[in-house]
Amino acid sequence: MNEQVGLIGFGIMGAAIAARLAEQHYSVLVYDVSSAARSRAKELHYTICESPVDVAEQVSVVLMSLAKPEQVRAVVQDRECGLLCSVSQNLIVVDTSTVDPDTSKENAEISEQQGVGYLDCPVLGRPGACGNWTLPVGGNKRYLEIVKPILDTFASRIIPVGPSGYGNLVKLLNNLMFGAINSITCEIFALSQSLNMEPNVLFDTIANSGAGTVSNLFKELGPKIIDREFSPVFSIDNLHKDIALGIALATESGISLNISEIGQELNEKAQAAGLGQEDTAAVVKVYEDLLPLRSEKER
Predict the structure, then answer these.
(1) Cross-strand bridge partners of residue 259
(2) Which residues contact 71 (CB under 8 A, 6 or more apart)?
(3) Main-chain phi, psi angles of 134, to 5 degrees
(4) Would you kindly state where each structural domain of the chain is located, as residue ranges?
(5) Model confidence over 203-215: pLDDT tens digits?
(6) What is the CATH number of domain 169-298?
(7) On the CB side of 172, how many CA atoms lie within 13 Å of its CA?
C-alpha cells in the first residue's frame, strides 16, 4: 500500500503539494474547511477526511497549507477536532503556511507536550515552481530527518534555519522584500505610462539589461501589468496579511519599517478599491489613479 500523507488546506499551494505527492505515489488524505475545496480534491481522487483529527488518526505526517495564523492555531489546537486530539503515535505536523513565528513556537511547544513533532517550513517560491521550492525549516532536526523524503517531493532546497519559528521569520523577511519590489515595479510602470513611455519598451529594455535592479519578480510582474492580467498567483489580500505580520514583528522589536509601511498603505488602498483578490500586480491600478495620463496639451 502507498504511504499515506495528510494535507490540511487545499488552496493553490496545497493543491500543488498534493499533485507532487501523488506523482511520487503517496496517498494523500485531504481536509479543507471549504466544501468547494473538498469537492475539487475529491474530483482529483484524493481521499477526503471529515476533520483535522480524522486526518491525523490515519497518518504519521500531516502537512498544513493555510492562509492565516488563527487557522493554523485552530487546526492544531481545537479541543474537539484539532490535530492534537489524535491519539496516534509518532505524529509529525509540518506547517508550510506563512504565519508569525510566535504561532509556530506556541504550536510546537504544545505539540511537544503531547509527544507530537512540529516543524514550520513555509514556502519560498511561486505555485508553478512546485518541485523546485526552497523550504526554510524551523524546529527539531530530528523531525526533519524523518519527513525529508516527503518534503523532497515538492522542494529542491530544504534548509534548517533554527528553532521553531525561524522558518516563518525567514519567510516574513523575504515577503517584506517582495512587497517593496512589487510596489516599486507598479510605481515605475504607472509613472512611465503617465509620461507616455511604451510599456513593452520599458520592460524589454530593463528585463534584458543585466542591470542589478532586475529581479525575477520584476520579470513576472511586468508582463502582467502590460497585458492587464491580474488573476491571482499571489493576491493583494495575502500580501497585505504577510506584510502586516512582518510589521508587527518589527514593532515588537522596536523597529520601524518605513518602506514596508508605505507599501502597506498602497496595499490598503488597493483593498479599499476592491482589488484584494487580484494579483499583487494590480497595485499598479492605485498608482494609475494617482498618476493619470497627461493631456495632449501637456505632452
Answers:
(1) none
(2) 9, 33, 97
(3) -110, 135
(4) 4-164, 169-298
(5) 999 999 999 999 9
(6) 1.10.1040.10
(7) 25
